[in-house]
Write a structure and sequence with these properties.
about 425 residues; alpha/beta; Alpha-Beta Plaits; Rossmann fold; 3 domains; six-stranded parallel β-sheet; about 35% helix; EC 3.1.3.3; HAD-like_sf
Length: about 425
């Protein structure tokens, strides 16, 4: 502070011990009786153990208030420390970032390596909170002094080494407010590959599955592989679309993910190298705002084995994300993309946060973050949305059991 302005006398108060009702209210009542001001106040309870800290500004030297605070702690059977000092908390450094660490279980050695790497990047961990416990444990670390791209590179290596999922995102206002979520469909929003379901009706499922796998690994040009697979569908009656729509299996947590982000004011879109005849009804059912996919050519009620119009390939997926963001009036920094295959790479790179979902190795290596558990709504944790937030949104949108989604992770339960 400038020399002309005297630094404040302050008391740093810490209570630890078994959590009991009314500890914070009693502390504040004693501070109020002494005419003190509250500069900071934080409380956490872990397995019934309380940690309460307060930074108070007394109106005098604080000795009388310190004695009263110690009596409050003793009355509750808590350990109390009161540290006199001068001044407020130092201002937080710039370079705010959020690091989300997710795993079926989080070993201390993994977290030790991650926190050490953060320190090696000259970033500081200011706060840590738990976002979820079952079936995955998720922690969010609030940082300052971080270089997000540099930290992403450093932590990506540790994620692979320790078998955990890590997402590094800009912090502060970037974590709040409306965003656009854009998802791939096949093997992301749904568990199936639609073209394989269609091919099964043509008796050529194995042939198409082989081509699909090679394309998703990036071994084949997507457009060429699509045309090759679509030729196998020639002659199918359009009634096959109804059969395939009934056979589709949503990825566990898909409904919960869409429902929750929409409750939070997000816009949601899907962009697929599959087919709009399947994707659009699915999007409508889930309440997804926008859908973009290939269209199959039909003549006299039969599939011709050709695609009607330009192919939705990896470049077009990225262009679609840009169009969606522009239509929603959102910058690309406020977009999130989720996909699993090589044809999603451009879209993941274009988005503010690109998340590889149970993806091929080439995709995991290039995405900003990776999720390797089979529950799509774990994406919510990567966005800093806690389990409690999800449950609250779910109660608001599904107030009775008739709306329960058997495939959604909260209701199964999977989150």
């Amino acid at each position: 502070m400038p020399p002309s302005i005297p630094r404040l006398n302050t008391l740093l108060v810490t209570f630890t011990g078994e959590d009991r009702p009314a500890v914070s209210s009693r502390l504040l009542r004693v501070a109020a009786d002494a005419g003190a001001f509250v500069l900071d106040l934080e409380q956490a309870v872990v397995r019934g153990r309380l940690l309460l800290t307060a930074l108070l500004q007394p109106t005098d030297d604080g000795a009388t208030l310190a004695t009263a605070i110690e009596q409050v702690g003793k009355g509750f059977g808590l350990t109390v420390t009161v540290e006199p000092g001068r001044g407020d908390n130092p201002a937080r450094r710039t370079g705010r970032a959020s690091v989300v660490v997710l795993g079926a279980s989080l070993h201390a050695s993994s977290l030790a390596a991650i926190t050490s790497a953060i320190g090696d990047q000259s970033a500081n961990i200011d706060r840590i909170r738990r976002l979820s416990r079952d079936p995955v444990t998720t922690l969010e670390l609030d940082l300052s002094g971080a270089d997000v791209p540099q930290l992403r590179r450093a932590l990506a290596l540790l994620a692979a080494e320790h078998g955990v999922d890590i997402a590094v995102s800009p912090g502060g206002l970037a974590r709040r407010g409306r965003r656009l979520l854009v998802m791939d469909v096949d093997s992301t929003l749904i568990q199936d590959e639609v073209i394989e379901l269609l091919a099964a009706h043509a008796g050529r499922a194995a042939e198409v599955a082989t081509v699909t796998e090679r394309a998703m690994r990036g071994e084949l040009d997507f457009e060429q592989s699509l045309h090759e697979r679509v030729r196998c569908l020639a002659g199918l009656d359009v009634s096959v679309f109804d059969d395939v729509r009934r056979a589709i299996r949503l990825t566990p947590g898909a409904r919960t993910l869409v429902r929750t982000v929409r409750q939070l004011g997000f816009s949601v879109a899907v962009v697929s190298g599959g087919f709009i005849e399947i994707v659009q009804p699915l999007a409508t059912e889930l309440g997804i705002d926008r859908a973009h996919a290939n269209r199959l050519e039909v003549r006299d009620g039969k599939l011709t084995g050709r695609v009607d119009g330009p192919v939705v390939d990896r470049a077009e997926k990225a262009r679609a994300l840009r169009r969606f963001a522009e239509a929603e009036g959102l910058p690309l920094s406020r977009t999130v993309a989720v996909g699993d295959g090589a044809n999603d790479l451009d879209m993941l790179a274009t988005a503010g946060l690109g998340i590889a979902f149970n993806a091929k190795p080439v995709v995991r290596e290039q995405a900003d973050a990776s999720v390797n558990v089979p529950y799509l709504d774990t994406v919510l944790f990567m966005l800093g949305i806690s389990r409690e937030d999800v449950e609250e949104a779910d109660r608001l949108t599904a107030p009775d059991s008739s709306n329960v989604d058997p495939g959604a992770s909260l209701e199964s339960p999977h989150v």
